[in-house]
Amino acid sequence: MKKVLILLLVLCLAVPAFAAEKKDPLAAWKPKFDPSGAKYTYILSNISHPVIEGVAAGYRIRDKVWEKTGGQIYVDFRPLAQLGGEKDVISKLKLGAVQGMLSSSVAAANVSDRLGIVNLPYVVDTFDKLDTFRNDPELWQPFAEGALPQGVFVADVTGYGPYGWATTTPVASIADAKGINFRIAQAPVNTDVYKSWGLKFTVMPWPDVPQALQTGVISGLDHTAIVCNITKKFTIAKSFTELNYAQGLFIHLVNKRWLNKLPADLKQTFLDVIAEESAATRAATRKQYDEQVAKAKEAGVQFFQLSAEEISKLKKQAEPVLKSWGEKIGPDYLAKVRTKLGS
C-alpha cells in the first residue's frame, strides 16, 4: 500500500512537469491585442506552420488589418490544420463556416479548374513569372474571379518556393526518376502530370508522409526545398532535384458572401492590406528559399538538376496535359498567360 501511495505521488508531481514542458507551438504568434471587441471576425485557415513565410503572412495580415480598421476586423488565423484537412476546409469555406483559407496551390484546383493554371508544369514556374502573373491585370483578374461561381474570391497569393523532388536516392536524370515512387498531393493536376511523365506515384495526404518515407512506402516527394528542409524531410530523403516546374503557392481564398457584407470602406482596407502583405511575403519567400537551400546543403543534402534536354522532354510529354486542362481553364486564357510569361 505504501508503494502504491508513493507511485501516485510521483505521478502527480510528474504530470504538471510534463504539461509545462509541452509548449504551445504557436505561442510566439499570439495577438498583442484583445480581439473581443471586433465587429467582424474572419476565420482564416492553413495546414502548414508559420515558420514558412507564406504561412506567417496570415499573422501579419491579422495584425495589420486590426491596426488599419481600428480594431473592427479580427483575422482569426488558424494554421497547422487546426480546422482540418484542405478538402474539408474547402467545403467549410464554400458554406461560410470558415471565411478564408490560405489554400495550397495543389488543392486549389479542387475549388475551380481555373485555379489549376498555376500548378501546370512550366507555366508560372519562376519567382519572376509569378510576380508578372500577379501584377498584370489581364492575367490576374480572370484568376482572381475564377472561383466566383463557387462563392469564393481569390484575394492574393503567397508562396513556399519552387517544386522539385526530394528523394532517398539521387535523381540526376529521368531514368533515375523511373526508380522512385513519388508522393504527390491529392490534386487532379498533379495526377495528370505524373501520368504524362510515366513516373510511379502515390497520392497521399501530407500527414502520412513521414511514416511512409521511414518505412519505404514512398521513396520521393514532389515538394519544395523550403518545406522539405523546415519539416525535416531531408533527414530521410537526402537528395533534391531542382525540377522547378511550378511555384508552390498559398492561394488566399475568401468567402464572397462574407466579403460583400463588409461596409465598403472596411472591405477596401481589408483587401488592400492582404495585397500589401502578400507582396511583401513573396519577396521574403525568395530570401527564405536561398536560406533554406543553403542550410540543406550545409547539412549534407545533395542537389541535382536535370539536363536542358531532359527538361525539354518533360515539357513535351506534359503538353497533352496543358491542352486538356486548357479546355477546362479556358484555352484563350491559358494561351495568353503562356505568351505573356514566355512559357
Can you describe what's shown?
By secondary structure, the chain is α/β, with parallel strands linked by helices. The protein is 49% helix and 18% strand. The chain contains 14 helices and ten strands. It has helices at 2-21, 53-68, 86-95, 105-108, 127-135, 137-144, 174-177, 188-197, 209-215, 225-230, 256-261, 264-298, 308-329, 331-341; strands at residues 40-45, 73-78, 100-104, 152-167, 181-184, 200-203, 220-224, 239-241, 247-255, 302-304. Strands 1, 2, 3, 4, 5, 6, 7, 8, 9 and 10 form a ten-stranded mixed beta sheet that branches. The longest helix has 35 residues, at 264-298. Residues 4-21 have low confidence and may be disordered.
Quick rundown:
Helix content is 49%, strand content 18%.
Going by CATH, the architecture would be 3-Layer(aba) Sandwich
Number of domains: 1
The gross shape turns out to be globular
Query: CATH superfamily, please?
Result: Bacterial extracellular solute-binding protein, family 7
CATH class: Alpha Beta
pLDDT averaged residue by residue: 93
Low-confidence stretches: 4-21
Query: What would you call the structural class?
Result: alpha/beta
Number of strands: 10
Strand content: 15-25%
Rg calc: 22 Å
Amino- and carboxy-terminal Cα gap: 77 Å
Total DSSP helices = 14
CATH topology: the name is D-Maltodextrin-Binding Protein, domain 2
**Biggest sheet features:** 10 strands, mixed
Order of helices and strands: HEHEHEHHHEHEHEHEHEEHHEHH
Helical residue percent band: 40-55%
